[in-house]
Amino acid sequence: LARDMVEAVRDVCGTATLKVILETGELGNPETIRAASRLALEAGADFLKTSTGKSPVSATPEAAEAMLTEIQASGRPAGLKVSGGLRSVADAATYLALADRIMGADWVTPKTFRLGASSLYGALMQARGL
Questions:
Q1: Is 115 helix (H, G, I), strand (E, B) or coil?
Q2: Which of 6, 83, 104, 119 could be joined to 43 by an S-S link, Cβ 3.0–4.6 Å?
Q3: Distance between CA 117 and CA 111 in Å, rounded?
């Protein structure tokens, strides 16, 4: 059922980027997150997103690691958006380091990696002295 839905949306959106939100805090364990990531990628997702940021548990390093591992294993271009719960520059650095470790130092670009920064924006501006 989930695969059919993602495939149907893929067909409708054509060449537009298809982002699939997995709400990983609700999925819980890394194995379930990996399975959901794999299903979404196989069904045509171009981008995976950790969460809406509206659930009690949003992005976690464990969820991002599971998702990045599946993106890497898929052998096709796909990106990750880490969303929900990022509040500090250290939080952002954790996810960037994960992406570098799993995907390689040159993988992170605006086309492949994004941070849900609504709660992080102020900290980033302060770190830049703005």
A1: strand
A2: 6
A3: 16
